[in-house]
Amino acid sequence: MENQERLQDYELSANQWQRWLFSAESVLKASYFLQKIHDEAFEKIKSAGPGGGTAPHGFGLDQQSRYFKGKSLELYLKCLFIKSGKLITNGRGTLTLKTHNLVDLASKVSFKLSLEETNTLNKLSDAVTFWGTYPVPLKHKKWRQNVPGMGGIQPVYVWSEADENNFSAVLERVQRLVGPLTF
Known about the structure:
Elements: H1 3-14, H2 17-48, H3 62-83, H4 102-108, H5 115-131, H6 161-178
Helix pairs in contact: 2-3, 3-4, 3-5, 3-6, 5-6
């Protein structure tokens, strides 16, 4: 493939919303699979009782599950960006929408978020750049951020049932806007 051919193919491929949707759905399935493995391991820990031994295989995969949840929303939102008629490249073979910030991406596609959903998407943005990939964030300001109502040493990250519900609500609305994968 000649360089000009490669450039044209790249520009065409990068701006096909179907590619982004297929990736979003694949990554979302991976998140559910990892969460299931984590949940099964957690149940083993709970049933073992005090002094139950070592953590079973799969315990702790909830962090990577959230990484993939965040990544799937990023891909869905970038799909919406392309479906709205915007290009995700600069015409010279470079991706221009380079962000993992889900709140910014939602804004770029005029996707409305409640305050609670914004807070959850901020956590998922951190999951994509930290929780699911590195043992510490890239900057100390993201380390053990204050959790309202919690004193003392703060947890590395907090994910609640409300966050899970917010994620599900945003995901459902985004999927409805994107529509099914068609070719």
